[in-house]
Specification:
Blueprint (H helix, E strand, L loop, with lengths): L5 H8 L4 H6 L2 H9 L3 E6 L4 E4 L1 H7 L16 E3 L12 H6 L4 E9 L5 E11 L8 E8 L7 H16 L8 H8 L6 E6 L7 E7 L2 H13 L10 H8 L3 E4 L12 H9 L3 E9 L2 E10 L8 H69 L5 H33 L7 E4 H18 L4 E4 L2 E2 L1 E4 L1 H18 L5 E8 L2 E8 L31 H11 L3 E7 L3 E9 L10 E2 L8
Parallel strand pairs: 13-16
Antiparallel strand pairs: 1-2, 1-6, 3-4, 4-5, 5-6, 7-8, 7-11, 9-10, 10-11, 12-15, 14-20, 16-17, 17-19, 18-19
Length: about 575
């Protein structure tokens, strides 16, 4: 058998049978498959007589039976310099007209939407009267180089201008992704999340409009899951290191597979570059970039570019978060100062009036030479003492907040009975409850002994009970004390105004209030201090409520290192006698 020159001679002898008979030869088929270029043999009728595996890889299609007018099924020849513009005429059509197309360069938009840059030639075979009996296409896909330095610098400058243009950096992440897609990737997703919580997708972009819709739908169904690259977000958060790899086909994407796997398969994302967003030593998010062509994997230069973009994005997002927190802190401070001024002034006003009145009465009686009434002085001193207690309580709360913030809250543990502490606090509140027409109920069938700080424990119960009386005026307040093994539980339930569902998560925060300070006094510190003390004990405090139905606060405390026989001591009010 002769060399490749046998192809044109066979086509000249019999265009319909010669080339196919020649290519059936096992040696020529082996040569075709071993070739590093894409080789395609087409006769004048458009029948595809040869189509090696490299051609299938480059065109992303199986071997077609025939082609129409020089166009492969699902593929579009486009200009190499402007892939948005198709060629006026296919290079195969030109060769069938007898033209030897030498070392041309074209773009090819493939069925999956990716565009390849191809370089090669098309040789006419068996030319007679200006027309070829067939053509041989030889193509090689050009290796895609990483983004050049000028383009990378321009991209960084545009990203920096975008992130610096607004204080709300999180609101600029989608425009940022649109800068990167398709300049750097076919698709991109940006994830953000506070420390200790899962990262969630906040923006996503795909270069192909129909796949952009699929990507958004997949992330809508699973915003906090690694639906695109399983395990990637957890790895990025744990290691803080960039990850780059080729992706396998999503598992379970068959006809009976999970819908999210089918969506991920339809996106055809094959190359992955994941970069953590690190700010002040903490991973606050991740930038995930994807390509659909394994032949165009991300380069080292592009990885470094993505890392620099991620660094700038993390800095901008973290700065915006700090600015929001600072503004919120200033707002809370101003609100607190207003409330604190009002609360401190409230006991001072009657205190000042009573002392001023007493002073005038003493002066008047002294001018007349009459003695001062002991009853009148005693009445004034009671008011003074009551207002001083209020002032002391307010100042103590402020000092407690300072100690908690500085980490100086100390506990002095001793054995005591929680039921006895609750009974004592209820006794102290009995006069106030009577004035508010509230009945106090205590259900404590047995002593609940544990090791706690008495002063702090009394402070916690006092805060919970005073809240119940304040917001449940005129209705019963019930306190229950019970034991559950090594856990002590105290429940305070009122039938007052209740707390809305949106306010419940924040009532234990500092300076937070679920009601207007115009109708209810206080600094908004009681429940915050309560939670901090309870957590210092190693316990928890929770709240449930329905507006108009009242609220229930449940305090659970570990009982500490106490003897086993103390775990169930009925009918006592303290540690059992030895």
């Amino acid at each position: 058998m002769s060399s490749g020159n046998a192809w044109p001679s066979m086509i000249q002898q019999d265009p319909e049978e010669g080339a196919e008979a020649t290519l059936n030869d096992a040696v020529l088929r082996l040569l075709l498959e071993q070739a590093g270029d894409a080789l395609v043999l087409v006769d004048v009728k458009g029948r595809v007589l040869a189509f090696n595996s490299e051609a299938g890889r480059q065109f992303r299609i199986p071997r077609p039976e025939r082609i129409e007018h020089g166009w492969f099924p699902g593929c579009v020849w486009v200009r190499a310099e402007d892939t948005s513009r198709p060629l006026d005429e296919s290079p195969l059509t030109r060769a069938l007209a007898g033209e030897w197309v030498k070392e041309g360069r074209w773009g090819l938009r493939r069925p999956d939407g990716t565009v390849a840059q191809l370089r090669g030639s098309v040789v006419p075979l068996g030319v007679r009267d200006g027309h070829a009996a067939g053509v041989l296409l030889r193509m090689r896909e050009e290796a895609r180089l990483g983004m050049d330095a000028a383009s990378a610098a321009r991209l960084l400058a545009e990203a920096g201008a975008l992130l610096g243009a607004a204080l709300d950096a999180e609101g600029r992440v989608e425009p940022l992704l649109r800068l990167l897609v398709p300049a750097l990737a076919d698709a991109g997703v940006l994830y953000l999340g506070p420390p200790g919580e899962p990262l969630r997708a906040v923006a996503a972009v795909h270069a192909a409009p129909e796949r952009h819709v699929l990507l958004l739908e997949l992330l809508r169904q699973h915003p906090a899951a690694d639906s695109l690259v399983p395990g990637s977000l957890l790895s990025l958060r744990d290691t803080g290191q960039t990850e780059r790899r080729l992706l396998a086909e999503p598992q379970g994407a068959g006809a009976d597979g999970a819908p999210e796997a089918a969506l991920a398969l339809a996106l055809e994302l094959r190359c992955y570059l994941g970069v953590p967003l690190v700010a002040r030593g903490r991973v606050i998010g991740a930038l995930a970039l994807f390509r659909g062509d394994t032949a165009h994997d991300f380069t080292d230069e592009e990885e470094r570019l993505a890392e620099e973009l991620a660094r700038r994005t993390a800095l901008s997002v973290d700065s915006a978060r700090l600015l929001r927190e600072a503004r919120e802190a200033v707002r809370l401070r101003d609100e607190f100062l207003g409330i604190a001024s009002h609360e401190l002034k409230t006991p001072l006003t009657p205190l000042h009036l009573k002392v001023q009145l007493l002073h005038k009465q003493v002066e008047l009686l002294a001018a007349r030479g009459e003695p001062v009434s002991a009853e009148r002085v005693s009445e004034t001193l009671e008011v003074v003492q009551r207002q001083v207690r209020k002032l002391t309580s307010l100042v103590d709360n402020l000092l407690d907040v300072s100690r908690i913030t500085a980490g100086r809250l100390k506990l002095e543990l001793e054995e005591m009975d929680l039921a006895s502490v609750a009974a004592e606090i209820l006794y102290r509140f009995a006069p106030s409850a009577a004035q508010l027409n509230c009945t106090l109920e205590l259900h404590a069938p047995m002593a609940v002994v544990g090791r706690w700080d008495r002063q702090r424990l009394e402070q916690v119960v006092t805060n919970l009970l005073s809240n119940a009386l304040k917001y449940g005026a005129g209705k019963p307040v019930c306190v229950r004390v019970e034991a559950d093994g090594r856990l002590a539980r105290l429940t305070v339930q009122d039938c007052g105004i209740g707390i809305s569902a949106e306010d419940l998560p924040r009532i234990f925060e500092r300076f937070e209030r679920a009601v207007s300070d115009r109708h209810y006094g206080g600094l908004g510190l009681g429940l915050y201090i309560t939670r901090q003390i309870v957590e210092a004990f190693g316990g928890t405090v929770t709240a449930t409520s329905e507006p108009g139905q009242g609220s229930t606060f449940v305090l659970e405390l570990p009982r500490g290192d106490i003897p086993e026989e103390w775990l169930s001591v009925p009918g006592t009010s303290g540690p059992p006698a030895a």
